[in-house]
Design brief:
Layout: E1 5-7, H1 11-21, H2 27-45, E2 51-57, E3 62-68, E4 74-78, H3 82-92, E5 97-105, E6 112-118, E7 128-131, E8 134-135, H4 139-150, E9 156-159, E10 162-163, H5 165-174, E11 180-182, E12 184-185, E13 188-189, E14 195-196, H6 202-207
Parallel strand pairs: 1-11, 4-5, 4-7, 7-9, 8-10, 9-11, 10-12
Antiparallel strand pairs: 2-3, 5-6, 13-14
Helix pairs in contact: 1-2, 2-3
Bound molecules: uracil.
Length: 210
């Protein structure tokens, strides 16, 4: 993947995103839509995976058939909202290895602080796809990618549902080697760090916590 930013403009993605943005959409529908969109986004983020072939026998004859090459890829959920994207992507790539990065924001320094980090072995040999629905300020995404690189990852992609221009710029500056795949880049962030027009707090909407 060579582009730093890919916006998936497919009509199904855009239609489902509109339903998710609507504040009248209830929690159950929001979760289902996120799972459906995550599969469509996963299709895009895995588009250029390396392939090889293996000999198989169809009922008709032998052939060298295409299969994914290399080690199983690693999906890394940035807690907690990342889990909403993770479920759908895992349905499409059931053999993927899974890791979790937990970060909270220190209210004094406003910097992300790590509270959980558990990732699969051999990150250096895997394609690593970090998932978080909302790329807002970019602070937690940049910190999560920092941690993944420290753990050995060198081939990372970032999958989100919605991005703010500020977050895209911050990621581009800190991690220009990490392509971003998203369904939309919205107008801006508001004073509270929410994406405008956005969809509100993705975690609260998917888990029904507000
Ligand atoms: N996180 C969210 O859940 N929503 C935003 O708009 C920004 C960050």
């Amino acid at each position: 993947m060579t582009d730093h930013l890919t916006i998936v403009t497919h009509p199904l993605v855009q239609h489902k995103l509109t339903l998710m943005r609507d504040k009248a959409t209830p929690t159950g529908d929001f979760r289902r839509l996120l799972r459906e969109i995550s599969q469509l986004l996963a299709y895009e983020v895995t588009r250029e995976l390396p392939m090889t072939t293996k000999p198989i026998e169809t009922p008709i004859e032998e052939m060298d058939a295409p299969v994914l090459a290399g080690k199983k890829l690693a999906l890394i959920s940035i807690l907690r909202a990342g889990n909403g994207l993770l479920d759908g992507v895992l349905e499409l790539i059931p053999g993927a290895r899974v890791g979790f990065v937990g970060l909270y924001r220190d209210e004094e320094t406003l910097q992300p602080v790590q509270y959980y980090f558990k990732v699969p072995d051999g990150l250096e040999d895997r394609l690593v796809i970090a998932v978080d629905p909302m790329l807002a300020t970019g602070n937690s995404s940049v910190a999560a990618i920092d941690l993944l690189k420290k753990a050995g990852a060198n081939n990372i992609r970032f999958l989100c549902l919605l991005a703010a221009p500020e977050g895209v710029a911050r990621m581009r500056e800190a991690h220009p080697d990490v392509p971003i795949v998203t369904a939309a880049v919205d107008k801006k962030l508001n004073a509270k760090g929410y994406i405008v027009p956005g969809l509100g707090d993705a975690g609260d909407r998917m888990f029904g916590t507000k």
